[in-house]
Design brief:
The chain folds into 2 domains: about 150 residues, no CATH class; about 110 residues, Jelly Rolls (Sandwich), CATH 2.60.120. Helix content is about 10%, strand content about 55%. The chain contains 3 helices and 20 strands. The strands form 4 sheets. It has a 10-stranded antiparallel β-sheet. Strands 13-20-15-18 form a 4-stranded antiparallel β-sheet. The relative contact order is 0.15.
Length: about 325
């Protein structure tokens, strides 16, 4: 009897399918490749990403919607749950999606202007232009399926962007920037997402102050330079100065000595690395920037130092 019922049921299903009485999933008239519309974010929505750059790899950061009333109520503020990661962004500027994000297209701001990295509704074959990382891009949608839009963008120098928007998470599931030589400059991969984040979140508005790299392998060498710390062009005095450094010394008599002094000759930063010592991706702050700093660095033997300074103005929200 069990076999007879199963066979009869199979014939009924087959007949129903052929006559069209079984509905497929999209009964509302939409299809799997329907255009993807712009989402609405709520304060407290969050996304946990893994970030990789040439400076560091597999660093995780939680991006959180801190406000939805920016730019006269037309933009969100996308902040971060770690003050350290907010400072890292300010000095390295590796994450273009922190800060103001427009309601309409989730456009990130660069040099004060919103850039449509996404151009909703996302439909297969659509194309548009934008600027990001100070590079002009031509983007297109390769495919749309089940609320997932796969996009690519190219630049005249051979750089590429490959990124995926997922309607179920309301943001990128991946975003990869590759330079003309094939080096991945930024990889963002979504690990988790959710809503109703609770706790403090931060955004540090940064401004470049000074950067330099020394790679020495010859005779002893001393370098001295000075730089002026002016205010942010729109927001006044910096709250702090943020630095990022890498250092490495070879064996034998190799060494690096770094000293940063303010205009009153007070030491603001001092570091020494001896033979075989190395340090990578160190982030720190100098609390009260003054007007002028003098940097002195001495190198012996096989030695390397990379140094970046940026001004930072910190905003915070309690959710």
């Amino acid at each position: 009897m069990r076999g007879t019922v199963t066979l009869g049921t199979a014939f009924m299903l087959l007949a129903c399918t052929l006559s069209g009485c079984i509905e497929t999933g999209n009964s509302g008239g939409t299809t799997d490749d329907s255009p993807v519309d712009s989402p609405t974010w709520d304060v407290g929505d969050w996304w946990l990403y893994t970030f990789s750059t040439p400076d560091y790899s597999d660093d995780t950061a939680r991006l959180v919607v801190a406000s939805d009333t920016e730019e006269g109520g037309t933009a969100y503020m996308l902040a971060i749950s770690s003050i350290g990661e907010a400072r890292r962004h300010a000095v390295l500027n590796h994450n273009p999606f922190l800060g103001r994000i427009t309601h309409e297209n989730l456009s990130a701001f660069e040099n004060g202007a919103p850039q449509p990295v996404l151009d909703f509704p996302l439909s297969e074959g659509a194309s548009w232009d934008f600027t990001l990382f100070s590079i002009e891009w031509s983007a297109s949608v390769r495919s749309v399926s089940g609320g997932v839009a796969v996009m690519e963008a190219g630049a005249s120098d051979g750089s590429t962007l490959d990124y995926v928007y997922d309607a179920s998470s309301k943001f990128f599931s991946s975003f990869i920037w590759t330079d003309p030589s094939g080096v991945v400059q930024l990889r963002m991969l979504l690990a988790d997402d959710g809503s109703s984040h609770s706790g403090d979140v931060y955004f540090v508005r940064g401004g470049d102050l000074y950067s330099n790299t020394w790679d020495e392998s010859g005779p002893d060498f001393e370098f001295e330079d000075s730089f002026f710390v002016s205010d942010h062009p729109n927001d006044g005095e910096w709250d702090e100065m943020i630095y990022f450094l890498d250092a490495a010394c070879g064996s034998g008599g190799s060494s690096v000595t770094l000293t940063l002094r303010d205009h009153g000759s007070i030491s603001a930063l001092e570091r020494v690395w001896g033979p075989g010592a190395s340090e990578s991706g160190t982030l720190g702050t100098i609390p009260y920037p003054s007007e002028e700093y003098t940097l002195t660095a001495t190198f012996t033997g096989d030695s390397y130092l990379r140094l970046i300074f940026a001004g930072g103005i910190t905003q915070s929200w309690s959710l």
